[in-house]
Amino acid sequence: MSLMGLLVIILVVLVLFNGSKLPGLGKGLGKAIREFKRSSREDGPKDGDH
User: Fold this and answer.
1) For a tag site, which of 3, 7, 31, 47 has the least CB within 10 Å?
2) Are 18 and 25 in contact (CB under 8 A)?
3) 4-36 pLDDT tens trace
4) What is the pTM of this model?
């Protein structure tokens, strides 16, 4: 993805979600990513799994 494409996506997110809602959105996204990482570590491959 080019830098221009990334800037367009950021601009669209700012317009859609308003500047005041972004901290809460980032917090929720960070929480979801942490939970996903934790669950993937716990459910990792067992002995004999390939």
Assistant:
1) 47
2) no
3) 998 898 888 888 877 777 788 788 888 998 999
4) 0.49
